Amino acid sequence: MAARLLLRSGLRAAAACRAVRVSAASRCMSTGGIPTDEEQATGLEKVIMKAMRDGTDPYNMMKPKGYAGSKMDPHLVPSITNKRIVGCVCEEDNTAVVWFWLHEGEAQRCPSCGAHYQLVPHELPH
């Protein structure tokens, strides 16, 4: 008797779960559902999500474009000040990093390998 009761309640619960289907449109706040990340984002998070949706990279979170590193096509280094410290791994399998200061103006060379770097101004979006 107890087994039949458990079996019936299990079948009823399964049928009730199949009957309650939630569409994607009913998830938004206007219908009383769970809001998406974009609907509940505020402040700086909302600005970042909007910029990423528009295809811009507000905080340089994506991999930077590759440059040749020559005098005509230097590696571009964004900075909000007029100088920045740069680390150059001169060879692919090298474990040492060569650090040097990069100043605003013309492209400068790495003291070890000779790759060119140029400082470019960068403004924060807020």
UniProtKB/TrEMBL annotation:
Q: Which domain of life is it from?
A: Eukaryota
Give the binding site residues for Zn(2+): C88, C90, C110, C113
Transmembrane stretches, start-end: none
This protein is called what?
A: Cytochrome c oxidase subunit 5B, mitochondrial
Record carries keyword Membrane: yes
Record flagged with keyword Zinc-finger:
no
Q: Which InterPro entries match?
A: Cyt_c_oxidase_su5b, Cyt_c_oxidase_su5b_sf
PROSITE patterns for this protein: COX5B_2 (PS51359)
Keywords from UniProt, A to Z, are: Acetylation, Membrane, Metal-binding, Mitochondrion, Mitochondrion inner membrane, Transit peptide, Zinc
Q: Which positions make up the signal peptide?
A: none
- Which is a Pfam family this sequence falls into? COX5B
A single Gene Ontology MF term assigned here is:
metal ion binding
| Origin species | Amphiprion ocellaris (Clown anemonefish)
